[in-house]
Amino acid sequence: MKATIGRSELLKALQHAKGIIEKRTTVPILSNILIEAGQGNELTLSSTDLELSIHESLVAEKVEELGAITVSAQMLYDIISRLPEDSSPELSCHQDTVDGREPFNVKVNRSTFRLGTLPAEEYAEIKRVVSPYEFTMKASDLGDLIEKTRYAMSLEESRYYLNGLYFEVLFNDDKPFLRAVATDGHRLAKAEALDIQFGKNVEGQSLPKIIVPQKTISEVVKLLDKGGEVIVSFSSRSISFTFGGVHLQSRLIDGAFPDYEKVIPNDNPFFLKVPTKLFADAVDRVSVMASDKTHTIKLTIQEETLMLSSSNPELGTAFEEVEVSYAGVPFETGFNARYLLDAARHVKGDMLSIALKDPGSAILLQDEKDPGLSFVVMPMRV
């Protein structure tokens, strides 16, 4: 094979591909990236960890010889990242007549790099799964949906079914919309994307509810800078995201996600309204004095004021009073400051609505301008 391609385009594709590869793998060839030079000046890069795979098609400046080979993803990335920004490296691979090996060559001006290779025929076969359900949405909408929820995913491996983002397609007046939910057992985030388009009518069908692994979500986020639209195809076992020339395919988490509807306290009788930024800034300041282990702050709620406080035997105390609108009985309760901040910082509206019940019950935080966005935070002892 022999091809020439712009450095910046190649570097971005290598970033995508090497993100899939596990840093520690017992299968040497899975540390490599598959590079294929094809007809029409097409250069494709593929990588996989056997659970998640990516296939990206690029347009090379020229392809002089067709062929395919695998080479170390990290080493190739390290080389390309150090080349001049406006350069166009020549990539080639020819059989060495001395020992029969096929070194991979990278040439730019007076620089030449020769990398070891493994045959393309030995690389794991990456088959595109044909999924029964497919819809299109704006990449920006998908990014917004993920950003509002991903932080609440659990990191505990023992609760593997929480180590991902839960998706389900629902209908409102015959129009489908996408809902994402994440929880770690201490908090929950729920968001919705209303503008999704199915290629065929799926109303009345039993669409699978799926859990997308955390790693897959992280790799999807890296691709969102491409903008435009994304095609999402899914079944009960796999999901794929197609951004133009990039195809990302993943297995799903095989497990039952909790009934999140039962967790959301829709019957909390008391409502507190506070400017979003004012609340977030106050929580951030008071949390400085909170314990490094629990990050607990106390909320003392009265008719027109909210007192936030924290204490640390070694450091001292912090108090801040905030004017609020509140209709309910006065009481004190405690929360993890980080959980409150994560929720407040994802509210785009100027006003934050907090529904409360009593010191021992979870609170519901909502954006007044986005009814589909909800955050649940469990209380802590203070």
Q: What is the secondary structure topology, with strand pairs?
A:
Elements: E1 2-4, H1 7-20, E2 32-38, E3 42-48, E4 52-59, E5 62-65, E6 67-72, H2 73-81, E7 90-93, E8 104-108, E9 111-115, E10 117-118, E11 133-138, H3 139-147, E12 164-172, E13 175-183, E14 187-193, E15 197-198, E16 210-213, H4 214-223, E17 229-234, E18 238-243, E19 246-251, H5 260-263, E20 270-275, H6 276-286, E21 296-301, E22 305-312, E23 316-323, E24 325-327, E25 331-336, H7 337-344, E26 351-356, E27 363-367, E28 370-377
Antiparallel strand pairs: 1-5, 1-7, 2-3, 2-6, 3-4, 4-19, 6-10, 7-8, 8-9, 11-15, 11-17, 12-13, 12-16, 13-14, 14-28, 17-18, 18-19, 20-24, 20-26, 21-22, 21-25, 22-23, 26-27, 27-28
Helix pairs in contact: 1-2, 6-7
Write a short abstract of this structure.
The protein is of the alpha+beta class. The chain is built from seven helices and 28 strands.
How would you portray this structure in words?
The chain is of the alpha+beta class and 382 residues long. The model has no long low-confidence stretch (mean pLDDT 93).
Low-confidence stretches: none
Cα distance, first to last residue?
A: 67 Å
What is the class of the largest domain in the CATH system?
Alpha Beta
Number of domains: 3
CATH superfamily of the largest domain: DNA Polymerase III, subunit A, domain 2
> Helical amount among residues, as a percent range?
10-25%
- Mean pLDDT over the residues: 93
What is the SS-derived class? alpha+beta
Q: Using DSSP, what is the number of strands?
A: 28
